[in-house]
# Entry
Amino acid sequence: MALIHVSPPGPMGYCSLGTSVDVTNAAIEAADIVIAQLNKQMPRGHGDAFIHKSKIDHAVEVDCPLDELPVPEISDIERKIGENCAEIIEDGACLQTGIGAIPNAVLASLKHHRSLGVHSEMWSDGMLDLIECGALNNSNKKVHRGKTVSTFIMGTKRVFDFIDDNPSVIQVGSDYINNPQIIARNPKTVAINSAVELDLTGQVCADSIGHKIISGVGGQMDFMRGAALSARGKPIIALSSRTKSGKPKIVPFLKTGAGVVTTRNHIHHVATEYGVVDLYGKTLGERAKALISIAHPDDREILSKSWVDNYCMLK
# Structure
């Protein structure tokens, strides 16, 4: 049984999945029974977002606002991270970002760029700001040129109104959007993802705090790999040097039980409020030196000592 949220049918009998295609079509195809909530306030998204009313077994009509994702406040630290990332992002880049203050800070720092594009698992108000100021027009993309492409959208009503019956915005299934081979076809693909913690060899934990699972893997590895394969692409892990409680995020070793989402073999650029380093192709010692240089200043001495004590090398 698939429970889906759609717009009412249009003149030709098609409902739209609106803000979220991702895995919904796969659920519809696999289900014996499809039950739809027909919401008058669901925007009519384009792309692979349509389902004919004949495929709906039962329907419930509603008229209620969609849940909104408020625009997060950006701190001075997050703003600096965004500025550091923006320095290595070229005009004509194709962007993938996630949810939160750091992705929004990166996007806010790109308003003077030009010919940017979107091929992302999701996007929100920060991307819309770039569209409205003229920085983002998808003109440099090879796949879906001129189109803002994702699997789902989260944001405020401003975003929902923008995508309503807007053919320049399309939603496609996650099996396509997250395919590294598709991602890599767009030149200058920039994947911006974050981390819970990062060890000195470049291992990225993004889904757990030790044994405690806090998230799914999501599309981080798909886009990190796709950006790495893209012509002049740049996979970026962006994170603050410390947590809000003051604990280091760049650490000698990941916590016991921590999951490695992006491996040390796939890591490229890492950005904190103290700068950006590129770890790709570097020795373990060179990586440690680079990461220590963008760690919090108060953590650098203990990181260096821990590296020497435990790895017996810093070359």
